[in-house]
Write a structure and sequence with these properties.
115 residues, alpha+beta
């Protein structure tokens, strides 16, 4: 006589969940906030890691998993991103419209939560 402690359907669901592909893992790091977001020219998300210089100081790099691809200084990448973001501007009317829309949504949410 066979006794099942776990229903067969439940067993199958758990096994499928355990054997599911894990996907891309992103570890948050203040020095490398774009890790997993930036992509190499080959399409692979860039990872990042510190490298210790001769002085003992750490230097941070974004790099592709393929060693012959990108290996870029995090400081340079962050500076480039900031210079690009400085070029982006929104017209004053659009900023006002976004601000009004946000305030309306916040007010609606606040009033509905009081009820």
């Amino acid at each position: 006589m066979e006794i099942n402690l776990i229903h067969n359907k439940t067993w199958s669901l758990v096994q499928n969940k355990i054997n599911e592909p894990k996907g891309t893992r992103v570890i948050l790091d203040e020095q490398l906030p774009l890790r997993g977001i930036l992509k190499c020219h080959c399409g692979t998300p860039l990872t990042g890691a510190p490298s210790r210089g001769k002085s003992g100081r750490y230097y941070y790099y974004y790099k592709c998993k393929f060693s012959w691809h990108n290996n870029r200084s995090a400081v340079k990448i962050h500076d480039q991103l900031l210079s690009i973001l400085e070029l982006i501007t929104l017209p004053e009317k659009m900023i006002d419209k976004i601000t009004r829309g946000c305030r309306m949504k916040v007010n609606n949410k606040a009033s509905s939560s009081r009820l």
